[in-house]
Amino acid sequence: MDETSRNSTKKLDIEGVRQQSVALRADSRAKESYKQIGDADINRNGTNGFGDKSSSSVSDKSLKMPRENGTSAKEGEDERMLNGGESGGAAVVARNEEPTEKDKLAQKEVEVKFISSPNGDARIDLEVESQQTFSGMTKEELMKYANDPFWVRLRWLLFVLFWGLWLAMLLGSFYIIYVADKCPAPVPLTWWQQGPLIEIDETQYESQVETIAQFGAKGVVYRLPADETYFIHSAPVKEKLEKLIATFRPKKIEVVIDITPNFVTADDPLYKLALEKGPNDPASKAFIWNDLATLPNWLSITENGSAFKNVTSTHAILSQFGPKRFDLQLNETIAKEKLKDVLKSLIVYGFRGVRLSNAKHFIISNSGNEEAMPSPEANKTLTMVDYGFWTHKKTSYQQGLGELFNELSSVVHGELQENGFLSVTEDILRPDVFAFNGTMPIDIPLYGNIEYDLREANNTNATKLRNDIANTYNAINDTCRCNPWLQLRYNNASLQYLGASEYTIFNFLLPGVPLFALDVLTANNISKDTIETLEKFRASPSFQHGKFAVYNDTSAGAIAYIRLKPGNPGYFVALNLDPNQEKVADFSGIAGIGAELTVVLTSNNYAVPDVAIKTKVPANAVPLSPKSAIIATYVPAK
């Protein structure tokens, strides 16, 4: 009993608890803790130990301490519940001193646990609150360093560095935007670039409207009789043209008109005025006059003999295109304004495209004889009376054609913007002559040997066709530094070697607009589904804005080209010109082509077993039937 008494009267070692919790900070929450029981309290009522009949309740941490004489202390007399910081803080205040480290530690929360054992002993555990969290320095502690010179300088240094770097990044972004290549958003193709365009006949078009619409034509091309070009204001011609527009407009099909502006007939008012006034009148400058005594050796295009017709006893006027047709000098103001008036009137009628015939003859030299064709180029069967014997440098491809077409194109685009176009009906042959200030004022020019090579493919190999296609587009690109967009015109005469299906499939995805007569489709078993599929391909980003490149396979026996815009599937179009032999062509050398191609369209002659729509074929072994074409898609290789 003496040992139990000594344990119960032993002072609680608060100093030991303080040493264990130097690193912990005081929690702001007010919790209850037990105050140490002093000697006076222990010895109160004359006892220094616990009675044998002691009891404890651990659950509510309330301990009843009986005296030796059996009397019980008042509840709470042997222990006192105080606020954790009360005693220490009060002591400091009482001393009127700065709190010491021990005083601060005394404010730490101490948890007292009374644990009873089976033999009647009681054990007391003291624990400092262990779940405290680090909350950083207080405001008062931080303010001690607010005006410290080191920290003031450091703050200013970081402030300057932050805003300096921010300003540098801002200026850098502006500089990158300024020097970076401009990448304008791709402009959607206009209706006349999308195509196809179908040529119509004046006597049949009314019965063809529905069929033309079913084939998805964006426009039709009507050829106005040449002699009516400058009579479009006459009632019969005007009525005919307005009826044509009214026929196709409900189907949302635009109408293009072909005119022949390089000559007028004998009934034209301007010709009559010039003839009346003579060669020295301003109206006469619209024509090419010459003295009868010094006529050059120019020959008529449509007749035998001289290109000049006598109109007075001393003078003749140039008439290359037949009787009662007199050539205009279209770089002269009076003739040029006459043509501009026709263009404006056609736009008012509702035409959205104009093609001009005989473009190379719009400007004529005033004098001088023609030279014979150079010997290497001359046809040995021709003589001096034949038109082809001469070079015709005086009556064609004169300087100034580019400037003239630029003015005429401005009239059309000034009225219609990009919704209309101005083009030509014949191969321009010399694109450099028609260029103006680095541009090509002729929309969708007709140029190159593509149609000829496909028509005469029995005398053409795949290598020549590839070279001619590449040279055609390179020549236009070198002339105007633009993406060439050509007229891809063909007709039944073009199908001498290839079938209509093969020709159409190979032709449709070249950069340009297909132009053909309706009977090319209807008379050659070209289905509407085929044309619809091709038009869907033409609407893809890879066709409208993608790269174009043409290739031969490794054996140079087949030809193919690709259309590809980054981020989109590529299109692969291949053609086998061989009339007898099936080829397994290797096109794996094409830069960026995928290992596999997915077939999406085949021509009528394609008859490779086990190859159909959606079939995958390897790029290094593309099977091609004789005289057949195929279109496939591919995922570009990285």
Arrangement of strands in the largest sheet? 16-15-9-8-7-18-17
Number of helices: 20
How much is the radius of gyration in Å?
Answer: 51 Å
Spans of at least 5 consecutive residues whose pLDDT stays below 50 are: 1-35, 41-94
Helix content: 25-40%
Fraction of residues in β-strands: 15-25%
Number of strands: 26
Shape: elongated
Classification by helices and strands: alpha/beta
Main sheet? 7 strands, parallel
Outline the secondary-structure elements.
Elements: H1 2-9, H2 14-20, E1 32-34, H3 39-42, E2 55-57, E3 62-64, E4 81-83, H4 86-95, H5 101-106, E5 110-116, E6 122-128, H6 139-143, H7 149-179, H8 191-194, E7 197-200, H9 205-214, E8 219-223, H10 235-248, E9 254-259, E10 263-265, H11 269-277, E11 289-291, E12 308-310, E13 315-318, E14 325-327, H12 333-349, E15 353-356, H13 401-416, E16 421-424, H14 431-434, H15 450-455, H16 462-480, E17 486-490, H17 500-508, E18 512-517, H18 519-522, H19 528-538, H20 541-545, E19 547-552, E20 559-564, E21 570-576, E22 583-585, E23 596-602, E24 616-618, E25 622-624, E26 628-634
Parallel strand pairs: 7-8, 7-18, 8-9, 9-15, 15-16, 17-18
Antiparallel strand pairs: 1-4, 2-3, 5-6, 10-14, 11-13, 12-13, 19-20, 20-21, 21-26, 22-25, 23-24, 23-26
Region (Disordered): 1-86
Domain Solute carrier family 3 member 2 N-terminal: 121-198
Organism: Anopheles darlingi
